[in-house]
Amino acid sequence: MKGDCLGFILAQKRFLHHHHALLRACDISSILDDRILASVSSEQLLPLPKTCFTYEQMKMKLVKSQEGDILGMLEDVYFCLDRGIIVAYELSDGFFSDLAGSKRQIQRADSLVEVRKDEIVLNG
Q1: Euclidean distance between CA atoms 43 and 45, whole angstroms
Q2: Known InterPro entries for this protein (predicted)?
């Protein structure tokens, strides 16, 4: 499994149902403070791939090494939009550790091994 950033998920809210679409990273022309500019129309947006995970699905999941050691909980994900890859994962040991400022980062784009129902496995 690769740690790629495919783009942004857009929520299209309609009268009776909500639909999500993918705005690919390669279609984004610039990111401003209050908006994202893209070179596609709403008809050209793609459906979400079945194999992708959103940040909300991964946030606060337990993160383990391949050996089973607990590394922390996923707090944030950093990505390089130009290259379309995840560059770092920010991990937390919990609320009280966060107050003490002890969050840490794993800064390897190739470290994601597997996303399971209740946990994320990283290489390293």
Answers
A1: 6
A2: PRC_barrel-like_sf
- Residue 9 vs residues 46, 52, 81: alpha-carbon distances, Å: 10, 11, 14
For the entire predicted model, the pTM comes to: 0.67
Q: Are 72 and 63 in contact (CB under 8 A)?
A: yes
Query: What residue spans in the chain does CATH classification 2.30.30.240 cover?
Result: 55-122
Q: Any bridge partners for residue 86, and if so which?
A: 79
Rounded CA separation 73/93 (Å): 6
The CATH code of the domain at 55-122 is: 2.30.30.240
At residue 109, does pLDDT exceed 80?
no
> What's the rounded Cα separation, in Å, for the pair 38 and 116?
33
